[in-house]
């Protein structure tokens, strides 16, 4: 019986020596989500497709404007404003909550949103009768004031 135990101990020691010579393989990498795999220059493919669609539509609107400077200016301003807004939102999401830079980015987001609201309200109000114009501008004003309150006046304690 003791010889069997000795053989078992010896085989275990040899197995341990083999394990020491050949370390175990590294654990497999965690599976990545499909969204993480579909990246292009740090952006998701959906984001790239959205910007391509926005760019294509902006170019087509300028081409159809027949040289109308007001329309070209509106489309160009809206495009630059939207791209700047999305860039600032991306920066805002990546900036740590304690950073003083975050407040400046939040201010830029609010200003870009306000400008976009004003430009679109101007275009919509231009084709409406006077009572509807008043309603459009009142809604735009409420949106701007509500955004200001939500971004700057309401404390973080109240948001939770």
From TrEMBL:
InterPro entries hit by this protein: DUF6490
Organism of origin: Oryza brachyantha (malo sina)
Region (Disordered): 16-35
Protein name, entry field: Uncharacterized protein
Skewed-composition ranges (Pro residues): 22-33
Domain of life: Eukaryota
Membrane-crossing residue ranges in chain numbering: 40-63, 69-89, 109-128, 134-153
Keywords: Membrane, Transmembrane, Transmembrane helix
């Amino acid at each position: 019986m003791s010889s069997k135990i000795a053989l078992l101990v010896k085989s275990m020691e040899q197995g341990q020596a083999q394990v020491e010579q050949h370390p175990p393989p590294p654990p497999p990498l965690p599976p990545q989500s499909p969204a993480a795999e579909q990246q292009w220059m740090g952006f998701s493919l959906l984001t790239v497709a959205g910007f391509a669609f926005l760019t294509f539509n902006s170019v087509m609107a300028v081409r159809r404007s027949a040289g109308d400077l007001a329309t070209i200016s509106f489309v160009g301003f809206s495009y630059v404003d939207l791209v700047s807004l999305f860039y600032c939102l991306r920066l805002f999401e990546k900036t740590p909550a304690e950073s003083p830079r975050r407040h400046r980015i939040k201010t830029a987001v609010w200003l870009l949103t306000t400008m976009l609201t004003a430009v679109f309200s101007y275009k919509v109000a231009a084709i409406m009768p006077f009572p509807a114009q008043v309603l459009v501008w009142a809604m735009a004003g409420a949106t701007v004031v509500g955004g200001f309150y939500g971004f700057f006046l309401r404390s973080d304690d109240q948001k939770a």
